[in-house]
Prior knowledge:
It is a single chain. 39% of the residues lie in helices and 17% in strands. It has helices at residues 20-36, 50-62, 85-97, 112-122, 137-147, and strands spanning 6-11, 41-44, 69-74, 100-103, 126-130, 151-154. It has a 6-stranded parallel β-sheet with strand order 4-3-2-1-5-6, sandwiched between helices. Helix 1 crosses helix 2 (50-62).
Amino acid sequence: MMKDQTCCFTGHRVIPAKERPKIQKRLEHEIESLINQGVCYFGAGGALGFDTMAAQAVLGLRERFPHVRLILVLPCKGQASRWRESDKKIYDFILAQADKVVYTSEWYHKGCMHKRNRYLVDNSGFCICYLTEDSGGTAYTVGYARQRGVRVVNVAEEDSEQYDLQN
């Protein structure tokens, strides 16, 4: 995969219910904008919350853009083993629909989420995030992406900056 054709996602696990429709609409708009600019690979980390929302958005847009590929980059096998049954069903559906699955670690260990996040960023030219806090895993991942020259757009911001391949 080439970085200029790849976008990763990172975001919080909790998205307030009243914010979900607005975030979903922005997310779909940003993904479609990137597809129209030649991006066809989308990497999601498989976590609850924004990762799940992003993967579902890619799968939905894949109906109109069949060349688009969803790549799940998971921190370890059995990631969803302790999740609620309803969340596991969604996870299993996304897993079955993914075009590729990458496990960055065989088993859960301290640091496997961090390893997954860095893998996503290191293989992407773009990052769509949902960031509302200054600390934590999402803030770290967005900071890392910016350090690495990955173009980032935050769907939590009202006037999120559009990325353009010409810039």
